[in-house]
Amino acid sequence: xxxxxxxxxxxxxxxxxxxxxxxxxxxxxxxxxxxxxxxxxxxxxxxxxxxxxxxxxxxxxxxxxxxxxxxxxxxxxxxxxxxxxxxxxxxxxxxxxxxxxxxxxxxxxxxxxxxxxxxxxxxxxxxxxxxxxxxxxxxxxxxxxxxxxxxxxxxxxxxxxxxxxxxxxxxxxxxxxxxxxxxxxxxxxxxxxxxxxxxxxxxxxxxxxxxxxxxxxxxxxxxxxxxxxxxxxxxxxxxxxxxxxxxxxxxxxxxxxxxxxxxxxxxxxxxxxxxxxxxxxxxxxxxxxxxxxxxxxxxxxxxxxxxxxxxxxxxxxxxxxxxxxxx
Length: 327
Prior knowledge:
Blueprint: H1 9-12, E1 15-21, E2 28-34, E3 38-43, E4 48-52, E5 63-68, E6 75-82, E7 88-94, E8 98-102, E9 111-114, E10 120-128, E11 131-138, E12 143-147, E13 150-155, E14 162-168, E15 172-177, E16 181-186, E17 192-197, E18 203-208, E19 213-218, E20 222-227, E21 232-237, E22 243-250, E23 265-271, E24 275-280, E25 284-290, E26 296-301, E27 307-311, E28 316-321
Antiparallel strand pairs: 1-28, 2-3, 3-4, 4-5, 6-7, 7-8, 8-9, 10-11, 11-12, 12-13, 14-15, 15-16, 16-17, 18-19, 19-20, 20-21, 22-23, 23-24, 24-25, 26-27, 27-28
GO cellular component, one term: cytoplasm
Keywords: Cytoplasm, Repeat, WD repeat
GO molecular function: ubiquitin binding
């Protein structure tokens, strides 16, 4: 199997701050990718925002183009999905126990999804079997599979909050819980298939590498690489406090280029220790970036090879590879 090495320009590159996005009045609790290098953010100020370049050019600065209103509690999670109709929809989860659905043209929601009985803190979207499938996780200890905006299956089993959810291809859902476990469920019936145990504290985040491997991060300050069958393949240590979020940053594709089978990637994590850390799957931590905010809440990979970090100071920091020769 092909492997990447430090001689690969993508693997060898380091990252620096490209832009700081402002506009929120409180903690940015969640960030997500939008097409063409755009960024979505959700905040304790009960607002969600969309930042985009003025045109499809990764070198243009991002500008705020929409402010989404509706939540009466903390806007705690956000994601974007291309629906089966080909339109993009934006989903915002709130501590008022609701999920709000938007398009980018309107600041008010198209729909409100109500089923959870407590704070909703995580979302993931994917088209599966020609159905629009949204998965949500909540402090009510459940995850819900929504199909075409209807609550279809409620996933029971976690004994504390469900902190993160993720799709593995179009076949499975992963849920991460404050009960220190990760659970694997079938789509669409919600059958429990496996329970992953390996962390010693709350599991806060998930990142899927491919159909066979994924990552988790935890309040135990570790990142674990898993096989989809439950084997622990690697453990990454270095953070000094809770790890709240992680993502996979992949080498950007050229227009029209098909993803290669072994597309290079890096792992990015953010922590209560006030650092962003970048990891190589083989050699561990390759870069440590301090940010002067009390908490780094969230990180998301962007489709242009950059990544965004949401922090307690109300900012979104956008990072990009540092070009050789630049300070």
